[in-house]
Amino acid sequence: MRGSGDGLGSPRGIVLVVGVLVVGLAFIFSYVAAFHDPKPHRIRVAVVAPQEAAGELAAKLNALPGGPLDASVAGSEAEARAMIRGDEAVGALVVDPRGNRDRLLVAGAAGGALSGALEEVIELVEAGQERTVAVEDVVPLQGGDYRGLTAFYLVVGWLVCGYLLAALLGIMAGSRTSTLREVGGRLILLAGYSVAAGIGGALIVGPLLGAMTGVFAGFAGVGALVVFAAGAVTIALEELLGIVGIGVAVLVFVVLGNPSAGGAYQAELLPGFWRAIGDLLPNGAAVEALRRIVYFGGDGAGSPC
């Protein structure tokens, strides 16, 4: 017969129920707070204009209310295009010195919401000066990568693979281990599982669905690291906190990690807290790495943004 101390009415049961409620409400708060009012913040843009006007225009863009842009001067259109293809800028404003129709070069692959926000800001600035602007996508998304969300959902799936395996091991074999050998066994199992999950995810988004192609090995490697990171952190939290560690893992990877990962809205459109933690968690770091591998030649894929 089940002991009275294990029921939902016991102190431990009440604590667990309250903990689940807190995590659920935190989920609602985190997602709504991150996404309900996106505002551009220091979107990197290059300015190509005659030498005597370029610096002044960049300064005006940097002085816009709310600081939506981080403008710098490029010496030529070719330099600006290289900056965009190297992920050093989201776009470039190329000024026509002989007319009033300028051009905005953007990297759609930087994120549909991000490049769209840059277009809106520049169009407002141009309209205020009675000028028009034509947009050219220098680094477009692949055909199957609608709005650039494939990498985000792929990373979410890999994270689920990692912390669910750790949770399953905790439930089946106990959340706390008794020897280092037992911990090592779990980590070895997790390592093999992570490689399989990384390869499987890369196969799904590449050869199977054609959502993002041409980068199988890079994707499989990133996937294995993401799954192992999520699983290892969850195992560690279970060792420290018992079954409560699973809830803490969900708090880190789902409640905090997913909204800040740069999926629906990129970091430059998020409020300060979520913008700050994005690159510190596996979610955001992995999404950024995959984006750079696919669209920007892998530049900076292994480094903080």
Write up what this structure looks like.
The chain has 2 domains: 95 residues; 150 residues, no CATH class. The chain is an alpha/beta fold and 305 residues long. The protein is built from 10 helices and 5 strands; from the N terminus they run αβαβαββαβαααααα. A hairpin with a 6-residue loop joins β3 and β4. The longest helix has 29 residues. α5 runs parallel beside α7. A 5-stranded mixed sheet has the order 2-1-3-4-5, with helices on both faces.
Q: Can you list the strand order of the major beta sheet?
A: 2-1-3-4-5
Q: Structural class, please?
A: alpha/beta
Query: Total number of β-strand segments?
Result: 5
The largest sheet is:
5 strands, mixed
Share in helix: 55-70%
Strand content: 5-15%
Shape: elongated
- Which value, in Å, is the CA radius of gyration? 23 Å
Instruction: Extract low-pLDDT stretches.
Output: none
Distance between the termini: 56 Å
Total helices: the number is 10
The H/E string reads: HEHEHEEHEHHHHHH
Count structural domains: 2
Mean pLDDT: 92
Short description:
This protein is an alpha/beta fold and 305 residues long. The chain is built from ten helices and five strands, in the order H-E-H-E-H-E-E-H-E-H-H-H-H-H-H.
Give descriptors for this structure.
305 residues; five-stranded mixed β-sheet; 5 strands
Blueprint of the fold:
Layout lengths: L10 H25 L7 E6 L2 H12 L6 E5 L3 H9 L5 E4 L6 E6 L5 H17 L3 E6 L12 H24 L6 H29 L7 H26 L2 H13 L15 H6 L4 H14 L10
Parallel strand pairs: 1-2, 1-3, 4-5
Antiparallel strand pairs: 3-4
Helix pairs in contact: 1-8, 5-6, 5-7, 5-8, 5-10, 6-7, 7-8, 7-10
